[in-house]
Design goal:
heterodimer; A: alpha/beta; six-stranded mixed beta sheet; three-stranded parallel beta sheet; 39% helix; B: alpha+beta; 3 helices; 18% strand; globular
Chain lengths: 321, 119
């Protein structure tokens, strides 16, 4: 279908494209091992987050939690903020994002363009300070609605009801699904759906491993696992470092012409790992993985050019996925 | 050859500031005992009093999460690379914010009760 009543109706239904050049070659006579990319950058604001943003808003509307003219508060500077900003604009809500003042100017510009309001927290305080600010704001405005993607079942449901069925429809022979682990919504929703429909399906998580600064907790008990996370949905979970993510992101554009963000490179890295294992084992594999967004928002990092070492340095301390 | 273990900043007080230490063991459990013998107190930070892996500790063997490799029974071999990380998982702002917001009773109202109910 190519005609929609509005932009919101054009969410999802993204293409699944084969990667004939990046798929590993198998010995003659051996069963095929193929990689497939689900191009989530083909969503209204250019990322997979349009799906959960739309679902969470719709469900909050249906339950009466969100009423016309309400204010949505979300502490995010990432793709979810951008998706929410678009949905909020079209559905008539005010969106307030809380973020540290040192986030990239692209993010700020995109959010403002969609009409979101931004409350900055001091850069020196990092995310802890942003948290403190968000807490304070939430306390001062009990009527504002926090959709809270990390614990909102609507996030996973968006993928259970759309991403999963789309994949099964387009690739009934799917053997592996590989996606990024952030809020865990994509893997939980799509994973649950595919486990119900496909015997022996492998649900594989690729988790970005950032520079040390990101793990700078004062104490282990400050850690956090999203409420949505249920490890029984996963088969395996890989940690992918910056260097491997950059390498695969570059391969994706150089070899297959897909210009993606670094989280997609991390996911491809895990997808290739399971694909090569299948070749070794001589088993058939149709590995579908998620391309979360395009590379546009990350160009200013400079990590698409130069050596891998330089790119790694450019992304040090940044949340590249 | 031994097993190389990468230690996160938060646990380096136990390793004299070392980022990478060496250990040995046929399983993760054995490795942790060996590490604790050399760096006293480390085990208590990685495991719960009941002996399970701490909920906010992630351990990877050659970049794969041990919880999917048998957890404490995960098999190890010389030359393996083990990485220990606190579970802040990626989107630090989002995760940290979420943790703080959920952890604070004064802000429970900000997230409606129905959000915590599963499908």
């Amino acid at each position: 279908m190519a005609r929609y009543e509005s932009l919101l109706d054009a969410c999802g239904g993204t293409p699944l494209v084969g990667l004939p050049r990046l798929s590993p070659t198998v010995p003659e006579g051996a069963p095929p091992v193929r990689l497939w990319a689900k191009l989530e950058d083909r969503n209204p604001t250019g990322s997979i987050k349009d799906r959960p943003a739309l679902f969470m808003v719709r469900e909050a509307e249906e339950s009466g939690r969100l009423r016309p003219g309400d204010t949505i508060l979300e502490p995010t500077s990432g793709n979810t903020g951008i998706s929410l900003a678009m949905v909020a604009k079209l559905r008539g809500y005010r969106l307030v994002c809380v973020m540290p003042e040192n986030v990239s100017s692209e993010r700020v510009q995109i959010l403002r363009m969609y009409g979101a309001e931004i409350i900055f927290s001091p850069a020196a305080g990092g995310s802890n300070q942003a948290v403190a600010v968000a807490k304070q704001i939430a306390a001062e405005h009990p009527d504002w609605v926090m959709l809270f993607q990390y614990g909102n079942p609507g996030n996973a449901r968006a993928h259970y009801e759309t991403t999963g069925p789309e994949l099964l429809h387009d690739l009934p022979t799917i053997t592996h699904f590989v996606a990024g682990l952030g809020t865990t919504g994509t893997l939980m929703g799509t994973g649950r759906f595919l486990r119900e429909k496909v015997d022996g399906i492998q649900i594989v998580a690729a988790e970005p491993r950032y520079g040390e600064l990101v793990y700078g907790l004062r104490n282990i008990d400050e850690g956090y696992v999203p409420e949505l996370y249920d490890e029984t949905v996963l088969t395996r979970r890989f940690s992918v470092g910056t260097r491997d993510a950059v390498l695969r992101t570059r391969q994706l554009v150089e070899v297959e012409g897909i210009f993606a963000g670094f989280s997609s490179g991390a996911i491809l890295h895990a997808a290739l790992a399971v694909a090569h294992e299948a070749v070794k084992a001589g088993t058939r594999a149709d590995v579908a993985f998620v391309v979360c967004d395009g590379g546009w928002k990350y160009l200013s990092t400079g990590a698409y050019g130069g050596t891998l070492g330089e790119a790694e340095e450019a992304l040090e301390g940044q949340l590249w996925a | 050859m031994a097993i190389e273990v990468r230690v996160p900043t938060i646990l380096r007080s136990y390793t004299g500031g070392s980022k990478v230490v060496e250990g040995s063991g046929a399983t993760l459990s054995g490795l942790i005992d060996d590490l604790d013998a050399k760096h006293s107190g480390l085990k208590g930070r990685l495991l719960t009093p009941e002996g399970g892996l701490h909920r906010f500790v992630n351990i990877y063997v050659n970049d794969e999460d041990v919880r999917f490799l048998g957890a404490l029974d995960a098999k190890l071999a010389d030359g393996d690379a083990v990485t220990i990380l606190p579970a802040v998982a990626g989107g630090a702002l989002g995760f940290a914010a979420a943790a703080a917001l959920l952890g604070s009773s004064s802000n429970r109202n900000a997230t409606a009760p129905e959000l915590t109910e599963g499908r």
